[in-house]
């Protein structure tokens, strides 16, 4: 959805190009545009998550990344969308949570991949 107009609060804060941190800050301050933008973003993420749930029949979805630093602003919209549009028998038991690894998620994942590959290499005959 294309949005037009100016963001009054963004202008007052003298914020130039929008990024997730600025949008979350403005939403916390009550900026209606930022709140609706996060709501819409949560809906789109929720629709994507529904596809993953239906495809993999998963029990949990762990969300990470910068916007999850402000998970209380976006997770409710994601959860609502999943419950509203997903196949109920599949989505009613799914937990959608914020990753507890935070900014370390990439490092932990890379380390795990390294050890998997190291085991594979060690198992090969020389």
TrEMBL record:
Pfam family, one: ROK
Transmembrane regions listed in the UniProt entry: none
Gene3D superfamilies referenced in this protein's UniProt entry, alphabetically: 3.30.420.40
Listed SUPFAM superfamilies: Actin-like ATPase domain
InterPro entries named in the record: ATPase_NBD (IPR043129), ROK (IPR000600)
PANTHER family: BIFUNCTIONAL UDP-N-ACETYLGLUCOSAMINE 2-EPIMERASE_N-ACETYLMANNOSAMINE KINASE (PTHR18964:SF149), ROK (REPRESSOR, ORF, KINASE) FAMILY (PTHR18964)
Recorded family membership: Belongs to the ROK (NagC/XylR) family.
Annotated protein name in UniProt: ROK family protein
Organism name: Neobacillus cucumis
């Amino acid at each position: 959805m294309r949005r037009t107009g100016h963001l009054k609060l963004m202008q007052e804060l003298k914020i130039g190009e929008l990024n997730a941190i600025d949008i979350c800050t403005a939403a916390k301050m009550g900026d209606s545009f930022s709140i609706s933008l996060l709501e819409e973003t949560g809906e789109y993420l929720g629709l994507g998550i529904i596809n993953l749930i239906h495809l993999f029949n998963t029990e949990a979805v762990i969300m990470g990344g910068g916007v999850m630093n402000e998970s209380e602003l976006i997770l409710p919209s994601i959860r609502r969308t999943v419950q509203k549009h997903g196949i109920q028998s599949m989505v009613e038991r799914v937990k959608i949570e914020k990753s507890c690894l935070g900014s370390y998620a990439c490092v932990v994942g890379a380390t795990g991949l390294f050890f998997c590959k190291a085991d594979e290499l060690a198992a090969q005959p020389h």
